[in-house]
Specification:
Distance between the termini: 6 Å
Pfam families: Amino_oxidase
Oligomer: single chain
CATH topology of the largest domain: FAD/NAD(P)-binding domain
Number of domains: 2
CATH superfamily of the largest domain: FAD/NAD(P)-binding domain
Shape: globular
Number of helices: 15
Helix content: 25-40%
Largest sheet: 6 strands, mixed
Domain Amine oxidase: 17-480
Strand content: 15-25%
GO molecular function, one term: polyamine oxidase activity
Structural class: alpha/beta
Protein name: Spermine oxidase
CATH class of the largest domain: Alpha Beta
Number of strands: 22
InterPro entries: Amino_oxidase, FAD/NAD-bd_sf, Flavin_monoamine_oxidase
Amino acid sequence: MVQKEEIKIIIVGAGASGIAAGTKLLENGFNNITILEAENRIGGRINSVEFGGSVVDIGGQWVHGEKNNIIYEMVKDLDLIAPSSLPPDPGMSFFLPNGTSPDKTITDKLFATAIKVKDDKETASRYRGNFAEYFTTEYKKRVKEDFFPADEDILQLSDLVLDWFKKFMILLNPAESWNQLSTTSHYVFQPCEGDPLLGWKGKGYKTIIDVMKKKIPDPSKELPIDNKIIVNKEVNRIIWNRSTDDKVIVKCSDGSKYSADHVIVTVSVGVLKDVYKKVFEPALPNKKVNAIENVPLGTVNKILLKFPYKWWPSTVKDISFLWSEEDKESLREFSSGPVVNGRSWLENLFSFIAIDSHPNVLLGWVNGPTSKLVELLPDESVISGAMYMLRKFAGKQFDIPEPNGILRSKWGSNPHFRGSYTYVSANMENAKASANDLAEPLIAHSKPAVLFAGESTHATLFSTVSGAMETGYREAQRIIDFYRKNA
């Protein structure tokens, strides 16, 4: 009978799923583990950093929901999370390019209608077209029939809200265009019920790592996971089915080599797309290749601007930009930055929101086809574009100072991530690719030799930290169960 201390396990990646897998294995007596992390830090797409005296999150930010949310269950009694302190307003604070704001009573109703259409799975299922066609048709129908059948000005405003909502949809499902979503793909994600915006009380999402380590709530019970992690270790070869013995060989870019009984790969599907042909030996089975090639990883980037003081009132939780096609021609005034299909990157900078973790910071998002290109811009160009937008839309109502700090995410261009988070596309459905195929382990010598975890391997909670953690625990449990069955 094999003793647990003899079983060698390599985990590739020290993000949420890798830490989850490692801590679960340690708790179950599997101590001979090594976590190889390509970056110079742990956390993966959790990246909490100090910014102007406070901790902000460049990656994962909120605990999304409560019921059946593994993170919420772990921390709910530890005084670590809290609801947002922002006004519980169901709508957005919309601004027009002439510096005015439309009637908020009307835009709140339009926004609520858009949300209802988005969430109406039953009606969407009856449409044969893609999600964009369904949403546009159903939204316009409900606006015209249910609310404003004869008011032409409001109908025009509803089109501006529709255009904004397109960008909101590709924040939730980070495709380059919402035409890539089908009426079924959008509903694969199953959100947890409860508050979707639970924050970390100014301490950052990195707090969950200390909870997984058992450092919180009792530091005396901390698991020795830190001793198992080696940073700056980029894996470039996994030899998983050898004829000589049943060991898996892991090679790194620095020339180091490891031998293991099991390897848990937790890198993003974007990284897998980039490296699978040259990393895995022998080649992966066709079903796994199909999943890697067709499960999409989108890119959404954050822009955090710090100001010398809070210039927006507490009643304003966001500054969201509404503009028509004609209005967008004014972007010719601002010529700096990437343009794709004749569209400036500023069209994909659609909102800035206030955040609880820093009183003087606004958080903006860039998505769509220019998102990765914006990563290549210098900070000065991004600040210039962001301030152009803020002053054009809100400068008549507020005296907006120059920011005195900027932080940006660059998930797309980082070779260790290649994107922000997974979504489900129509192409993925057509290719019959699935998260379950991505998660299926490689069996060699009658054992799970290479296992796969990470948010993209979760069938219903992809794109979330909780989904990533669940998959890490899942693959650790797969190894635990294997040895229980073969004891």
